[in-house]
TrEMBL record:
One of its GO terms (cellular component) is outer membrane-bounded periplasmic space. CDD domains: cpPDZ_CPP-like (cd06782), Peptidase_S41_CPP (cd07560). GO terms for molecular function: endopeptidase activity; serine-type peptidase activity. Residues 88-156 form the PDZ domain. Keywords: Hydrolase, Protease, Serine protease. InterPro entries: ClpP/crotonase-like_dom_sf (IPR029045), CtpA/B_N (IPR055210), PDZ (IPR001478), PDZ_sf (IPR036034), Peptidase_S41A (IPR004447), Tail-specific_protease (IPR005151). SMART domains: PDZ, TSPc. Residues 400-446, 459-478 are annotated as: Disordered. It holds the Pfam family CtpB_N-like. Residues 468-478 have a biased composition (Basic and acidic residues). One of its GO terms (biological process) is signal transduction. This is Peptidase S41. The keyword Protein biosynthesis does not apply.
């Protein structure tokens, strides 16, 4: 979710042991000399030595050190991560939109792996895996206790090999195995069509290296079918994010030139930045401006952006920019709230560190982190309502999540009560036939939220949510 790739040069790491007891260490942090906590480093060295000598069986030095680094970084927040050789390769493949696996976006919940969303058209998508499904086992390995990185490793593999995932589906109160054949995931991040004369729909499922070019081609197709669009729906529902430059480019496609799209702020001077709707902020080296081919009418066509709890990071940047500049009406439900910048720094030829280095802010200065984007018009998922909204996970629910930096709201005491009521409704819903509970496919003629967007364009009544309200940020307990 929202990876900002930077090449920071090679960082040299030395293993320090016995000399720690006699040498006063200093570390250089961007030119500032900061003394290392000698006593704690000595304890780390002592624990390393005891494990080596006293543990029941020999332990590999490299594994001990790698696990120590992974644990240190994972304790910071849910998005910082140490990459070993294999995971670093997989991460770089993922941002390019090509990798071998099952095709799911995941996070952790209560020690289990939770599916944020299956990637459309992937083996997991075809196997029927759903948002909020919990993975309890990968082949014969229990997920409880596995790091997110280790779980990803076990699900990745060679093309045409099989992996069996044991799934717990809360809404059906059942556990079942699903065997999936791994394949190269060539994610198509852009879909779109002319819904009816005068109205277009473009869906972005992720922000990848090819997203901007694919978006431009799709817009060209739609305008070729109907050069006189009366309205366009930009669908960012369940879009987990991706590359920052792609988010800036998509925003720039609709905004006046040079207006602010997003800003960042962190400890380092390089983390204090403002990104504008101009080619130098999204154009890749050696290539021209990909937005030049877009029809001029795109700058003024009436625009609605659809979002939900699965809209995160880069998709929140786009929604926030279009909302603050009053370029679009945002409809749906409050977004995930992943408003932090992850910088990837290589540690050598094939390892790296993904570290949270800044927070994202909308053009008006609002922090996205742990708050998200609140729609202008709250819309349920279906005509019957959105009774399970209280059960949905957002950034603020994640363990060790980073606060907004703009003051935490008091804890919402009514949230657990709402969750308990939603759980009871869920039990009743689970008794219905599966066909009656399935949310229609995005972009279909039964897509309730898309229908409401069209009503908004046409000046017809819009069925506003009776259950969704803005969720305030909960105060973190230390």
């Amino acid at each position: 979710m929202g990876h900002k790739l930077k090449i920071a040069g090679w960082v040299s790491i030395g293993v320090v042991a016995g000399a720690l007891t006699t040498v006063s260490l200093q570390t250089v942090a961007r030119g500032a000399m900061t003394p290392l906590p000698l006593e704690e480093i000595q304890q780390l060295s002592a624990v390393f030595g005891l494990v080596k000598t006293d543990y029941v069986e020999p332990v590999d030095d490299k594994k001990l050190i790698t696990d120590a680094i992974s644990g240190m970084v994972a304790s910071l927040d849910p998005h910082s991560q140490y990459f070993d050789k294999k995971s670093f390769k997989e991460f770089r493949e993922g941002t390019s939109g090509r990798f071998v696996g099952v095709g799911i976006e995941i996070t952790q919940e209560d020690g289990l792996i939770k599916i944020v969303s299956p990637i459309e058209g992937s083996p997991a998508f075809r196997a029927g895996l759903k948002t909020n499904d919990l993975i309890t086992k990968i082949d014969e390995t229990a997920v409880k206790g596995l790091s997110l990185n280790d779980a990803v490793k076990k699900m990745r593999g060679e093309p045409n090999t099989k992996v069996t995932l044991t799934i717990f589906r809360k809404e059906e109160s059942r556990t079942f195995p699903v065997t999936i054949t791994r394949e190269e995931i060539k994610t198509q991040s852009v879909k779109g069509k002319l819904i009816e004369p005068g109205y277009g729909w473009v869906r972005l499922s992720q922000f990848q290296e090819r997203t901007v070019d694919d978006f431009v081609r799709k817009i060209e197709e739609i305008y070729k079918q109907d050069p006189h669009l009366k309205g366009l729906v930009l669908d960012l529902r369940n879009d987990p994010g991706g590359l920052l430059d792609a988010a800036v480019a998509i925003s720039a496609a609709f905004l006046p030139e040079n207006v602010t799209v997003v800003s960042t702020n962190g400890q380092l001077a390089e983390s204090k930045a403002t990104y504008k709707a101009a080619p130098e902020f999204y154009q890749r080296r050696g290539s021209g401006d990909p937005l030049k081919r877009l029809p001029a009418a795109l700058k003024t066509v009436p625009l609605i952006v659809l979002v939900n709890e699965g809209s995160a990071s880069a998709s929140e940047i786009v929604a926030g920019a279009l909302q603050d500049h009053k370029r679009a009406t945002i409809m749906g439900s409050q977004t995930f709230g992943k408003g932090s910048v992850q910088t990837v720094r290589p540690l050598g030829p094939d390892t790296g560190l993904k570290l949270t280095t800044a927070r994202y802010y909308t053009p008006s200065g609002k922090s996205i982190q742990a708050k998200g984007i609140v729609p202008d018009v709250m819309i349920d998922e279906s005509e019957e309502g959105n009774v399970f909204a209280a059960l949905r996970m957002r950034e603020a629910d994640l363990d060790k999540h980073l606060g907004s930096g703009q003051g935490d709201e008091p804890k919402d005491e009514g949230r657990e009560k709402a969750r308990e009521e939603a759980r009871k409704r869920l039990e009743e819903e689970a008794k219905k036939p599966v066909a009656e509970r399935k949310i229609p496919e995005f972009g279909s003629d039964k897509d309730f939220q898309l229908t409401q967007a069209l009503n908004q364009f046409k000046g017809r009544p819009v069925l506003v949510s009776k259950t969704l309200t803005e969720r305030k940020e909960e105060k973190k307990e230390n």
